[in-house]
Structures are given as structure tokens and as C-alpha cells.
Specification:
The chain is of the alpha+beta class and 461 residues long. Helices cover 19% and strands 39% of the residues. The strands form five sheets. It has a six-stranded antiparallel β-sheet. Helix 1 runs parallel beside helix 2 and helix 3 packs parallel to helix 4.
């Protein structure tokens, strides 16, 4: 590895790192009682990165034969060739080969690699039976999917830092089509954790079956409300996707370093009411966004982006940390060895406040309560966002009344943060299989307590 790093720096550059990956993937899909797909495969290779000023050289190889790795290092070196300055990319943890002392954030009781595929089919069949037992007459299509992986990661860099990690991931998704009176409704849920096959429990079966059928009566009864500007209460948990998309991406340091984020000039400034804390966290044990180390070998950590309403930190990889003269925050992440790392979120959430959820709803004379989103769009530079709400309720005179669906929530990230009227004491980090796409895909999670925003545009009738 040392020889590869030396070769990578041969044409210049001030920093180089190696990223070895060996990942086993597996999946099994049960559709209406029949197995329609499944299998296992292995992804294996090495990525070499060289940094020289503003230039990044990156190359990868799907072989670890010496000649192939050497060729990869030479290619990265040539791409980033230039004057070799002193490396500004820090040594945040100069230990050589030591595991992260913070903890193993994803202990495995039963390895996915060692669990026979024959165990997975009975689990999915039982999950399907449990769902149908709750609403057999209206479910006309049902799909249950299991996906899992184990990734061995080895990282070495020109500072002599050697880090390794084995990362598990298990995900279960359920999708159903319900029919009633000639109308159909779709609902999908998921669970995803960094753990082993021990997650496939009776308790998980019951929880997912209950959640999939919950609220279906309201879905069929729901309508589109009259649109306009009004208060919006964000339900605890999955509403955190708005926080992730509309604010979290704009806090990623590469957008700010390049001046494209709406928050690029707001460091140290009050951006929302006092008492609000917004966090990106890699330390939640078993969480989908948890990391022992990021993909640059920086220890996973808990990063306060907003403290008492003040923007105090961006999310940094080594490059942006060097630019701002701060320490990396453990947010350098990549999809696989084929990609160079970028500043990316992990688990993004707002801490609990002091209000009660019911009291926030009671403050609204006419507005919307939303708790299930399906997708959204955000303009990083302007901060404008649009989110599609799958399910929620009309708020009338401080009470949840008629169910609503198929509406858009439209607003501006900085304006929405500044217009937060109350934060409840019920933070929930959603356990779903959230995946963030930003040139490449990485697993993340999100959460939020119940939050009242004073004024957003609701797109309805």
C-alpha cells in the first residue's frame, strides 16, 4: 500500500489515499406469494485518489493484481499531476490500524454472509401472511423484498493512516395495492438497519404488517383541500425528509465552498429561532446512516450544524475542511470504490423542543398536518423546495379533521427555518430505507420532532 501511495504521488499532488472494498450483496423478492427474483453477488476492487490543489485524480480497478493496482495509481497520479504542495488535508486521527475507539456502531450477531438463503423465504412468506391477515379483502397486490449486504473496507493514505471497517446492512420493503369500491390506493413502507440477520424477527413482522395497513381507511376517504398559504405542522419522523432535502444538502460544504448554496454566506448567523438544534449524526447505533469511519478514514461523529438557531458548521470531507481550515466532520462518503468521496449526510435530524405535539396543532385555526412524503425537488442555490405529500390531515380550529392526500408543499429553506413557530418534544428518527442521490447513492436516515411552520404554500384544489 505504501508503494502504491508513493506511485500515486509520483507526478505531483500533496495527498493520496487508497480505498479497498469487498461487498457481498443479496436479495430476495416475493410478489403475490411467488419468488420472482433473488440472488447473491460480490463487488470487489480498489479506488485511488490523488489531490493537488483544486485538482482531483481518481481511478479504480476491479482487480487487486499488483500490475492492475499500479496502473490505477499511475492513472490517478497523471490526472492530478502538478506542483506538490504541503498536504493541507490533515491527520484527524493519526493512529495506525486502530479501530474507532468510540464504539462498534453496528455489531452483528448473525452474519448475512453465513446465513443460508433458505432462511429468508419463510420470513418473507410469514410477513406476507401477517399483512393479508390484517386486510385480506382489499389487498390485490403485495410485494415483500429483502436486500442485504456486508462490506469489508480497508483505507490507507499518504499520512500513514490505516483504517478498516466491516459494514452490514439489512433492508425490508413492503408494497401493497388496496382496492375499494373501484378505487385503488398504493402504500409502501420499509425498515433498514446496520445489523445482521438477527433483524428478521417476529417483532419486525408484526410492526411492519401493522404499519402497512394503518391509515388505509383514511386514504380512501381523503381528498385534496383548497390550496393557498397556510401553517403546516410536520409530523414527527418521516417528515425529516424535508429537513434533509431542503436544508441538509445546502449545509454540505462543497456547495458552500463553491458559493452555490443559499447558506454560503451565513456561517455564524442566526438562521432560525433560538433553541433549535439541527444535527447530522454518524454515531446512532444500528442506524442506516451510522458509520464507524467515513470513506476517507475519518472517525464517525455527531455534528451540530445549527446550535441555538445559529449556523455553526457545514458538513466536511477532507477537501472542504482544508479549504475552511477546520477539522473534517466525518462526512466524506462514496457509493463504492468506483467513486471519489463527497460531503454527504448520514442521519440528519432536529433535536426535540419543549412543546407538545397536540399544543402545536391546537395553535392552528386553518392549516395542514403532513406525515408522509413521496418525493420532492430542491434548488440548492435558491433554497426553494417542492414536496409531494402522500397523506395528511386538514387542521380546523386546532383539531385534525378531514384526511387529505396528493398535495404539494412549496416553500424556501431559509424562510421555512426562520418561520418555525414551535418544536415538540417527540423526536423520531425514521427507520426507513432512505437513499440519498448526489451524483452517487449512499444510505442515510432522517428524523424530526413535530414542528409547526408558520406559513408555506399548499398546492391543492
Amino acid at each position: 500500500m505504501q508503494k502504491l501511495v508513493e506511485e500515486a504521488l509520483h507526478s505531483g499532488g500533496s495527498y493520496a489515499d487508497l480505498y479497498f472494498e469487498n461487498t457481498t450483496y443479496g436479495s430476495l423478492l416475493l410478489r403475490d406469494g411467488a419468488v420472482t427474483s433473488g440472488g447473491n453477488h460480490i463487488d470487489f476492487g480498489l479506488g485511488v485518489r490523488v489531490l493537488s490543489g483544486e485538482k482531483t485524480g481518481y481511478a479504480y480497478s476491479e482487480s487487486t493484481a499488483w500490475e492492475d493496482m499500479l496502473s490505477c495509481a499511475k492513472a490517478a497520479s497523471q490526472i492530478a499531476s502538478g506542483r506538490a504542495d504541503v498536504s493541507p488535508y490533515g491527520t484527524p486521527n493519526p493512529s495506525r490500524g486502530e479501530p474507532n475507539p468510540a464504539a462498534d456502531r453496528y455489531p452483528v450477531e448473525q452474519s448475512w454472509r453465513e446465513t443460508p438463503m433458505s432462511r429468508f423465504l419463510p420470513f418473507l412468506q410469514k410477513l406476507e401472511a401477517e399483512v393479508k391477515g390484517r386486510d385480506d379483502t382489499r389487498i390485490i397486490k403485495l410485494m415483500a423484498n429483502l436486500a442485504f449486504q456486508m462490506s469489508d473496507i480497508l483505507m490507507y493514505n499518504s499520512h500513514g493512516e490505516l483504517k478498516w471497517d466491516t459494514r452490514p446492512m439489512g433492508s425490508i420493503s413492503l408494497s401493497a395495492v388496496f382496492e375499494q369500491g373501484g378505487l385503488t390506493e398504493n402504500k409502501s413502507i420499509s425498515r433498514s438497519f446496520r445489523c445482521g440477520a438477527e433483524m428478521l424477527s417476529e417483532k419486525l413482522i408484526r410492526e411492519m404488517a401493522d404499519e402497512l395497513v394503518k391509515g388505509i381507511d383514511d386514504r380512501f376517504a381523503a381528498g385534496r383541500p383548497k390550496g393557498g398559504q397556510m401553517p403546516v405542522v410536520m409530523g414527527a419522523g418521516a417528515s425529516g425528509i424535508l429537513l434533509h432535502e431542503a436544508m441538509g444538502h445546502a449545509f454540505e460544504a462543497d456547495f458552500n465552498r463553491k458559493g452555490t448554496s443559499i447558506f454560503a454566506d451565513k456561517m455564524g448567523k442566526q438562521i432560525c429561532p433560538r433553541g433549535i438544534q439541527i444535527i447530522d449524526d454518524g454515531t446512532l447505533k444500528g442506524n442506516r446512516g451510522a458509520i464507524n469511519y467515513d470513506d476517507e478514514g475519518v472517525p464517525g461523529q455527531k455534528t451540530y450544524m445549527v446550535e441555538d438557531g445559529v449556523l455553526t458548521s457545514y458538513l466536511h470531507d477532507r477537501i472542504s475542511a482544508a479549504h475552511y481550515g477546520v477539522r473534517p466532520t466525518g462526512n466524506g462518503r462514496r457509493e463504492s470504490f468506483r467513486y471519489a468521496p463527497l460531503p454527504r449526510m448520514r442521519a440528519t435530524y432536529m433535536e426535540s423542543g419543549t412543546a407538545k405535539a397536540g399544543d402545536l396543532i391546537a395553535e392552528v385555526s386553518k392549516g395542514i398536518y403532513v406525515d408522509e412524503f413521496s418525493n420532492g425537488q430542491v434548488q440548492i442555490g435558491e433554497g426553494d423546495f417542492t414536496f409531494y405529500v402522500k397523506a395528511g390531515y386538514l387542521i380546523e380550529n386546532g383539531r385534525l379533521t378531514r384526511p387529505v392526500k396528493d398535495i404539494n408543499i412549496i416553500g424556501n429553506g431559509p424562510a421555512a427555518l426562520a418561520d418555525i413557530r414551535g418544536v415538540a418534544d417527540d423526536l423520531a428518527v425514521d427507520p426507513g430505507a432512505w437513499t440519498c442521490g448526489k451524483e452517487q447513492s449512499v444510505p442515510v436516515s432522517c428524523g424530526i420532532p413535530t414542528v409547526l411552520i408558520g406559513n408555506l404554500t399548499v398546492g391543492g384544489e
